[in-house]
Design goal:
Shape: elongated
Radius of gyration: 18 Å
Number of domains: 2
Strand content: under 5%
Largest sheet: none
Order of helices and strands: HHHHHHHH
Number of helices: 8
Distance between the termini: 49 Å
Length: about 160
């Protein structure tokens, strides 16, 4: 039976960090014998306030303070998800999404993982009652608006 060693690259991909950052964290004591051990260690020690700022890669979009706030919180939410601490940023992110003017909501970009964390409970309820169906193109904007409202917390599981 072959035994495979967990690589820094595998841990980096699992945590959404660079291999260089994994090397730094290893020097700080992060275990690298398994992804689970590394994730648990990282979750206990990550400073969400410091880490999210380093994740904002793109220039801030035009569109005002509310949209800019969402960009920063989206990066923080990604770090929090990896660390298993999404609850620490969820309410603030939902409030920021709600503050974005309707005309600017199309500019909001969140990772699939963050969207799923925000709307997963609503999607689960809908899956219980409805089969997926093809939507006419004129209904797509209505659905987009619905899911945005769900992410912003306006639509919640009862």
């Amino acid at each position: 039976m072959a035994v495979f060693k967990t690589t820094g690259k595998a841990i980096a991909e699992a945590l959404g960090l660079s291999e260089g950052r994994i090397s730094q964290l290893k020097r700080d004591g992060m275990p690298v014998d398994s992804i689970e051990a590394a994730r648990a260690w990282y979750s206990r020690r990550v400073d969400l306030g410091r880490s999210y700022g380093q994740r904002v890669r793109a220039a801030r979009p035009a569109g005002g303070a509310a949209l800019n706030r969402v960009v920063g919180l989206a990066a923080r939410a990604e770090v929090a998800l990896v660390a298993g601490r999404f609850g620490e940023v969820e309410a603030e992110l939902r409030a920021a999404l709600a503050d974005v003017p309707p005309g600017r909501r199309g500019a909001v970009e969140l990772s699939t993982a963050v969207w799923n964390a925000l709307v997963g409970d609503v999607a689960a309820v809908l899956r219980e009652f409805a089969e997926p169906a093809d939507l006419p193109s004129d209904d797509l904007s209505t659905m987009a608006s619905f899911w945005y409202e769900a992410a912003a917390g306006a639509v919640r599981r009862a």
